[in-house]
Structures are given as structure tokens and as C-alpha cells.
Amino acid sequence: MNLKYLVLALVLGTNNALASFDVLKFSGAHRLLSQKRREVVSSVAKGVKYRLSKRSSVQTEQCVLQPKPPTFPGSDGPNGTVGGSNGLINATDSSCGASGATLNITAKSGPNGNIDWINCGITDGGWKPPFVQISDIVTVELSSVLEDSTSPFQACSSYVSIFEKYGTQFDVPPILLASFAMQESTCNPKTVGEGGEQGIMQISQDKCAGAPKGDCLDPDFNIMAGTEFFADTLKGNNGDLFLTIGEYNGWSSGLTISQATAAANSSCCRCQNNLDYIHQFLNGWCQNIDAYSHDPPLGKYFNLNDCN
């Protein structure tokens, strides 16, 4: 067999080539072979190009850098903090005795201590808060609890990105900011307190300067102002967290029960200091527990109940 027809047999298939032996001339076979070779080469090239393109695409996707989640003081992971390895507050101040922290949340205790320890001295000469820093407390992560459809923080779902934004800017765990919002207004941005407190974070009117179009209820501005106040106060208190949380509700070192409840019989009953505030904040909201509807109710004094 002519060598060129043998090659043609290999390319087209032996049967097809032999069947065409008598009718194809050398020149015709040569042209057909050349055309088929070009088609084969073109097909192979396209396949190689596709595989290279696909491989390049996969490699590109694998090399995309994902943004690193923000972390905060004492955090073991993004957007949250933890206390001791045993799930209880890592108390560093023994001046008020043992913390009385419990894994289970009860009316008077939880992972961040017993209410009598938190309110140390308030019934005996004045409040002497144990020194605790953000890195010592036990909390949940805001981003995680929102995966729970029954979480009380679902009320804050529209504002999570704002809590995270200003939490990152002011170095405060977002769960603390959302807990203030729940404690103060149950995350209702239209709330106005009896004393004129404004918005979702219930900031005092003196902090409303610079609000967009004078609207202190604007959620972004309100959360920013509340976060800035908390962060500045915490810094001024050298990281004393209990004192700073208390001061958000008007507490001060040395506070007594009579001082805290002085406004009970006034025209602004809710201008009292909530004596269960810090316990509800740390052992309620910060644990993804509704401090207002929990059974049993979280607290010991319930001095604001007289205002209803």
C-alpha cells in the first residue's frame, strides 16, 4: 500500500481509507490528510487551551484572599470574647471574695459571677466593683447567636453590621454593644426614655451633637455615639469593665441603694439606677438570654418594677 494511504488509514480509520483507495488520487489524499491533520491539531489545541484556562481559573479562585474577621480584646475567635477555660469569668480581684460564678444561669448568678459579688459593697457603705477587664468575661459571639432563630438578638438583626463597624473602630466586642441596645431599648431605635434618653442606645441628649439633620434617633449615629462613650469611659477607667457598664446606667463607685432608688417616687421613676443592671447585662444578654423574660427573672432588687 502507498505510504501516504497508510498514513491516511491511521488518521481516518483503516476501513474508510481502504474503501477509498481506488477512487482517491494521491493529490486528493494528500489534501484530505492535510485538512484532517489541521482539524486534529486544532481540536487538540482547543482542548489544551480549555484545560489550561480551567486550571488557571481554579488556581485564581484558590488564591483569592478572604478578609480576616475582626478580633477584640481577649477574644479566642472573631466577634466575641471568652473568660476562663472552664467557661467561667476569669476574676482577678478577690477584694469582694469569690465570684460565685456558675455555668448555669440562675436568678442571681451566671458565668460572670453572682449579683452580690458584682454589686459588691452596695449594701455596705457603697459599691466597690471588682476589677474585671473585657478579656476576663464570658460572652457569646453576636454573629453566631443570630443563626438561632429564637435568639433575643433577632430584634437587632438590622443593625448587626453597624455594631460590627463601630465595634471594630472603637475596639469593643459587638456583643457588648448589642447587649447595651437590648438592655436599654430592646433594640428599638425609636425609643425615647422618661429622662429624654435617645434611641437604640439610649444616649443622653448632650451626646446628640452632630446627629444627621439633628436626628439623634438615627441608628448609625446613635450606635456610634453610644460606642464612643463606652470606649472612652472604659479607657478613662483603665479597663475597669464593671465600673464602666455601671456608669452607662448612671452608677458610680460608692453608689448606695438609697442613692440608686432616690428617684423612685419622683415624676421620673425610671430615672433610678437599675440595681440588677450589670447582672442582667453580663449573665443575661451576653449569654444570649433575654434578661427581661427569663424564668426565673434575672435579678434581686427589681426596683424598676415599681415604675410600671
From TrEMBL:
Every copy of the Transglycosylase SLT domain together lies at 162-250
Q: Which SUPFAM superfamilies match?
A: Lysozyme-like
Looking at the keywords, is Signal present?
Answer: yes
Q: Which InterPro entries match?
A: Lysozyme-like_dom_sf, Transglycosylase_SLT_dom_1
Query: Gene3D superfamilies in the record, alphabetically?
Result: 1.10.530.10
The leader peptide range reads: 1-19
Instruction: Alphabetically list the UniProt keywords.
Output: Signal
Record flagged with keyword Signal: yes
What protein is this chain from? Lysozyme-like protein
Q: Which organism is it from?
A: Schizopora paradoxa
